[in-house]
Amino acid sequence: MVVPSDAWCKEHGYMTEYDNQGTKVSVPDYKKAFQSDPQLLLVISKINGMMAERGFPAKNMESAIKSLELEESEDAILISKASSSQIAESPIDKLKKTAKADIIIQLTWTLNQNGPKNSISFILQGLDTYTDKQIAEAGGTGASSFSADVPTLLGEAVISYMDAFNSTLQAHYDDMFANGREIVVRIKKFDAWPYDLETEFERKDLASAIEEWMRLHTQNHRFNLSDVTENMMLFEQVRIPVVDDAGVALDARGFVKNLQQFLSDKPYKITSKLVMRGLGQATIILGEK
Amino acid sequence: MLLRIIKTILFLCSLCVGFSNAFSQNTVPQQWHYDIQCENIGLDGTKLIKVWSYSKKEKFPLRQAQKNAIHGMIFKGFSGNATTGCPTQRPLADSPDLESKQAAFFAAFFADNGPYQKYVNSTIEETPIERIRVGKEYKIGIIITVMYSQLRKDLERQGIIKPLDAGF
């Protein structure tokens, strides 16, 4: 999915405010940008076309926004049931979840005017929605022109940078298939649960059992246990296989559901709740559904 | 005396063969002696490049310059050019030893009148040629349009390079 960057939205006046638990937060107003800026449509349409030609038809952001609006109206009805355990999501997190795009292509351009000459500075950033890391990039400033108009310069910029962008994207995919997709996993506990991660089951504490499960199920045993206490565990840079043993594509939710299943079996028999943030951050909360 | 002369001749011949082998093993094949630079942003799906080929003769065959252009897009890529706004382009080959691994394919691909011709667009009449004398040889620059997207697609289809969506 191709998304205009925050910097571009701010420069062009497409920002709005939302209330994040009492604090006003300024976020891009994508809907207004799409409805008002034909140059944005031109660039996104060109990038979408070039990605489709490479076998990656990009999700259309306008359609994703419409789906998001529908989902928000549905969430408003469900909020009383889930309010006690929900994790706050920003509008962009919700958009990522709705579109389920693995990669967001973030787009920024600036028109440079030097006397009668125009040029375009153009930046494409490929962001992994699982980790928010930048995994591909291309950008630079095009040649100055006396006569070319802005849409022509923008079209030229897309043509010139997309191949370079896709080359860096290819390197990311090579790494992903070799070393697995990166996610973040958190383990927490409800206050009401009488046990914790130091509780021993068959002479092994729960934290060690979870760490052992991670070691066995991650690609090439790659993960980083960044923080652990009796109440929480934080696993970062968890590399999960792109496909499971049956050859079916595996996402963060599918991977962590297997851990949830492991904890619900003997000897642990722990009831837990699985909460997702975006596509690549999963939290298991032990003790209750 | 005659025997000594024959022995000397044989010794000199063996030295010549030795030198010849060493030379052929340690030098770049003549046909891939070139540099590539981006000339300008091409139309959609194309790359407009200038190929600098090296030759001992002032006249240089266009066919070899075209081969150099396609070879460069597959195995070398080119660095960016701030004046023309060209970004750096990586080669299409995803590993440095692709040429040796697929030696039979590329021998046929770059044969005279081989498939490489489908991906270049230039003629001597239309293309300005630059010649620079460098030591004992000439550096000859020819502007060539490479049908880059078509080249990439065909190499992907034939399994020579990996498509972007491989594995999904």
Task: Count structural domains of chain B.
Answer: 1
Overall mean pLDDT score of chain A? Answer: 87
Name the assembly state: heterodimer
SS-based class of chain B: alpha+beta
Poorly predicted runs of chain A: 79-83
Keywords (chain B): Signal
Structure, explained:
The complex is a heterodimer of chains A (289) and B (168). Chain A has 289 residues and is an alpha+beta fold. Chain A has two domains: 2-177, no CATH class; 180-286. Chain A is 40% helix and 29% strand. Chain A contains eight helices and 13 strands. Chain A has helices at residues 6-11, 30-36, 38-53, 61-82, 91-99, 150-179, 206-217, 252-264; strands spanning 2-4, 15-20, 23-28, 103-114, 117-128, 134-141, 181-189, 200-201, 204-205, 224-228, 233-240, 272-277, 281-286. Chain A has a five-stranded mixed sheet. Chain A has a four-stranded mixed sheet with strand order 1-4-5-6. In chain A, strand 10 and strand 11 (233-240) form a beta hairpin. Chain A starts with a strand and ends with a strand. Mean pLDDT of chain A is 87; it is low at 79-83. Chain B is α+β, with helices and mostly antiparallel strands and 168 residues long. Chain B has helices at 2-26, 62-75, 98-101, 103-109, 148-157; strands spanning 34-40, 47-55, 120-121, 129-134, 137-146. Residues 15-30 of chain B have low confidence and may be disordered. In chain B, strands 1, 2, 3, 4 and 5 form a five-stranded antiparallel sheet that branches. Chain B has one domain (30-157). Chain B contains five helices and five strands. Chain A binds chain B through residues 53-56, 119, 138-143, 156-157, 159-161, 163-164, 166-167, 169-170, 173-174, 177, 242, and chain B through 40-44, 80, 82-90, 94, 148-149, 162-168. Chain B: Residues 1-22 form the signal peptide. Chain B: Keywords: Signal.
